[in-house]
Amino acid sequence: MSGGRAVGGGPSRLRAVDRRASALAAGIIGVAVVAAVDEIVFHQVLGWHHFYDRSTPAVGLLSDGLLHAAELLALVGGFFWFADLRRRGVLAPRAAWGGFLLGAGAFQVFDGVVDHKVLRLHQIRYGVPLLPYDVFWIAGGAALLLLGAVVLGRARPGTTSG
Amino acid sequence: MTGLAGAGADPLPLTLVALLAAGYLLAVTRDRRGWRRGRSVSWLAGCAVLALAFGPLAGGSADPRVHVAQHLLLGMVAPLGLALGAPVTLLLRVAPPPVRRAVTRVLRARPLHLLAHPATAALLATGGLAVVLLTPLYAAAERNPWLHHGLHLHYLAAGYVFAWAVAGPDPAPRRAGPAMRAGVLLGAAAGHAVLAKYLYAHAATLPPGLADRDVAALRSAARLMWYGGDVAELLLAAAFFAAWYGRRGRRVQRAACGLPAVSRTVKPSAPQCRVTWLHDW
């Protein structure tokens, strides 16, 4: 994601970087990447999650479908937005990293609290005590959130290299 | 589930697919302005997927997984390839004036605008699939070959209109805005995913009216439907956002040259308009 050199195109062109758009585009990618990792690692590779859990209520099924479709759309849309920022030379790499971490952490916390506990779509693993897994997943997300906020805060104008 | 067993691949759909491919290539050779190769490739890929669905997969197997694969290819993958081939644009380029006038008249017709609205198209495509799978229609189509072919034609037609409405490069008068198109794509993909999981959860009773029910096979068919729907959504989303990316690039380039934002034909040729950064990515 070190896209700073894309600016080198126009010799006399001096473009201001767009920190807000950079953070948002990368944030969307962050959300979608963690969602995809969750799907691939826990559902497919480890087989910990179940495709469908008997305790899933109808509203859970509906929200699961909507969230899943939105994640895929966000993944593709985020990458094209990011590519557009890069091509126009207005990408702010540090803001983008901050946004990415923030998005990834936000999704992980949301998944741990709302999907697993509130909607009870599925659990992280079956047949084992859940508490350590839940604590690890939610605390990991919170740590990412915090790190993202710090990086984003340091990407403010006035500090060096946006 | 035995009605179509032994029927084998029907030669009629395969002949029609071959005609579609040949007709398109003939039109491309007659276009003097030079047709983009990517569009031909996309059209031919769409035809190849159709041939796969109508040929090897249509062998009359009773396996619901084969049926799901066929529906995914016919209703979601092939239509996108065909729509990205921009057949209407090609027709408008090479057809004689009376045909062109007729096509333009159809494109301007109000019923078409209603039909080609992304929401209507999504309702016909995903909604139609739900109606088939949640009612005895699916079991009836297992027994009646004409109903079976009719449903396949419906999947293909509805899928084509949906792909065209969301991402198609072909002209669409009064095309819905990007936010509406993205929203409808989201809704249709979510509907497809919910339908697949619902079928998984109720494989013991759905689709209703099946003579010999293999619940395990129906479950894995529903799983395939779910993941296949993901692939189709990713492809359609990529086509949609790639079109946005291209449009935005042209607009930015035009603005850099001081040209009007809407014209599609003006090609910037002045030296100051050669914006190198458009190509450095």
Question: Could you characterize the architecture of this molecule?
Answer:
The complex is a heterodimer of chains A (162) and B (281). With 162 residues, chain A is mostly helical. Chain A has one domain (17-154). Chain A has 4 helices and no strands. Mean pLDDT of chain A is 75; it is low at 1-13. The termini of chain B are far apart. Chain B contains 11 helices and no strands. Chain B is mainly α. Chain B has one domain (11-278). Chain A binds chain B through residues 6, 8-10, 13, 51-52, 56, 61-62, 64-66, 68-70, 72-73, 75-77, 79-80, 83-84, 86-89, and chain B through 182, 185-187, 189-194, 197-198, 200-201, 223, 226, 230, 233-234, 237-238, 241-242, 244-245, 248-249, 252, 275-278, 280-281. Chain B: This is Cytochrome c oxidase assembly protein.
Distance between the termini of chain A: 13 Å
- Note the run of SSEs of chain A as H and E: HHHH
What class would the helix/strand composition of chain B place it in?
mainly alpha
* Strand content range of chain A: under 5%
As residue ranges, the low-confidence spans of chain A are: 1-13
**Fraction of helical residues of chain A:** 55-70%
**Average pLDDT level of chain A:** 75
Spans of chain B with pLDDT under 50 lasting ≥5 residues? 1-7, 275-281
Largest sheet of chain B, if any? none
> How would you classify the helix and strand content of chain A by structural class?
mainly alpha
* H/E series of chain B: HHHHHHHHHHH
Q: Give the largest chain-chain interface (CB within 8 Å).
A: A-B, 29 and 34 residues
Radius of gyration of chain A: 18 Å
The overall number of domains of chain B is 1
* Helical run tally of chain B: 11
Multimeric state of these chains?
heterodimer
General shape of chain B = globular
